[in-house]
Design brief:
The protein has 238 residues and is of the alpha+beta class. Helix content is 30%, strand content 14%.
Length: 238
Amino acid sequence: MKTRSPANSAGFPLRCAGLILAGALATGLAKREPTHRLPDGFVDVTEVIPGVRLELRYLTVNNFIGQPVDGYLQPRAILTEEAAGALAGVQKELEPFGFGLKIFDAYRPQRAVDHFVRWAEDPEDIRMKKLYYPGVAKKDLFKEEYIADRSSHTRGSTVDVTLVSRDGRDLDMGSGFDFFDPKSWPTEQAIPPAARAHRLLLATLMIKHGFQPYSREWWHFTLRNEPFPDTYFDFPVE
């Protein structure tokens, strides 16, 4: 009977272990590959802007309709390549101040906008009124231009964003995200001086890097030269 040499005896389990490890690594790498490819021209913002923070409200119940919104399936902030690149420039300019960006919403599927419209047509559902629209009747949210049946977010180059400190603390912006009230208008003066300064800094840098502000919401900016000005997308955020 032929016996295996000591060298072979030692090498065999090592080779087996190597094969097992290689297989495990290959499996792990495969699992880390994105399972949902984005349409051409779109990117995951976190892959473009190091250190950007996310608080994606429409994935949660912490928003003006009080429930997760249709089309938001994963905690991803998606933008067009052009918008993400411009936003990266803002993040870089904030670094000397010890500040950074936090995103509340970016690309928004049309199905999410349709969800907002259905919610707005239900007069009985006012569970979040005290927190988000205490001074305006729900039926007037369209007239006051706080919500609409078409959103620039759906074109992929609009972002809702705020400022945070280096350690992630929210800066005072004078009102909260999606607070539908004149207090949220960028030109509102009846807010603390520090909040006015923070709004001015955010708006100045966003405009410098090619974004257009919105007159009703200090957090809302759209890339002026957006690549899809007439296209409203509906792929889910996943």
